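Regression report. Comparing outputs from two consecutive submissions.

Submission 1:
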Amino acid sequence: MPDPEGAVLAFDYGVRFTGVAWGEWHSRICRPLLSLEVRTRIQRWEAIQHLVREWSPQRLLVGLPLDHEGQEQTTTRQCRNFARDLHRHTQLPVTLIDERYTSLEADRQLRSAGISKLQRRSQEHAVAAALLIEDFFGLTVQARDALLSSDHPDFFTAALPEVSDV
């Protein structure tokens, strides 16, 4: 079974903005880092490589956008592709995690803190990424083991040289 312990980086992927958060398994501490706003794929991967070097995660999480009924939507495929590319670029294990309602909750938290609409727009994705980590840390042992199992269709492991389309 893969060891989930250590630092994780989470990504709330978007075509324009990608939120990034950091968390540490033992302390259960997590915090939003930033929302990447990049114009090109090259800029995105350079920024991500820099974050991986700086924060030294053992695992990466990517939010998987599903509709309110748990069904896939257009952006789901984009996130799967991003997760696969993230694994290929970093050679780190990547886990997709249900991100339903994280953006709404992030917006609610920022509104409650009195953050302006303009600032919320740039911070929302990073806060949503932190919520992904909180969700991951809050999973039961059985649910986490199932999610991290190589039998799970959304499990990407660094031990595999090539990841098939999921």
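Submission 2:
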Amino acid sequence: MDATNWQARAAAVLREPLLHFLLAGALVFAVMAGRDAPDEAVIRIDPAAVATHHRRSTGRDPSASELKALIADQLRTEIYSRDAVALGLDREDDGVKQRLRAKLLAIIAAPAEAQQPSDAQLQALLAADPARYAGPTRYWLEQRFIGDDTAATRAAAPALAAALARGERPALPALPLPDQVSGVAADALAAQFGTPFAAALAGLPDGRWAGPVASGLGLHLVRITRRQAAPPPTLAAVRGQLEADWRRAAVARAVAADWRQRLAAHRVVIAPAP
């Protein structure tokens, strides 16, 4: 047999799925046989812990058959995951790395999340940015829908605003929205007219027709007759939001401090960009 035929036949053998299966099986056997400590092969499963996890997930205790199935499933997961790690299948797997990263971050964040801020800490947070915790402004206004958001409609807006200011009633498209609202909070207006409409109100003058103001439906002219800012927020009124923000900041600080320590403990080499 010449060298060319021999190489072709060897390549064909190497492509055989059965050979791949046998090699993988041999590798698994080698890993299993190579475990030094006998305890590594011992898998301990606590039925009480399994039942507790089920109770937290579903709100009820598992039945006897459910518990048996849950234990069997955990056993399979444990064996497969151990053997996969032993074979190095977790290496270079971005999905596994991201899940491990998320679990470690959760462990790092847990102490900070469990902390209870004092009233003084919450009051300081409120004093640093009271506008963040203030309630929405309320508006008394009139609005007129003038058409779709096009260049032509925008060009016609000043003339229409002037006509409305003179008390005229120009022909305008009908829209199933109120022409007047009284004492409506900005967040409620956002739900009715859209967030861009409500956000634009803060920059409009009082007492005269202005615009155009965009909504989810098109363009409007608006005349604000009154606006009322929310009273200064109190600690009691916004405690929940303050506590959430305080814990979020505490977690961010804990994660940043932990990252600095971990980064300092590793030697990092970043290859130059191609």
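Expected: both submissions complete independently.
Actual: both completed, but the second showed a warning that disappeared on reload.
Relevant detail on submission 2: Confidence is low (pLDDT under 50) at residues 1-14, 17-37.
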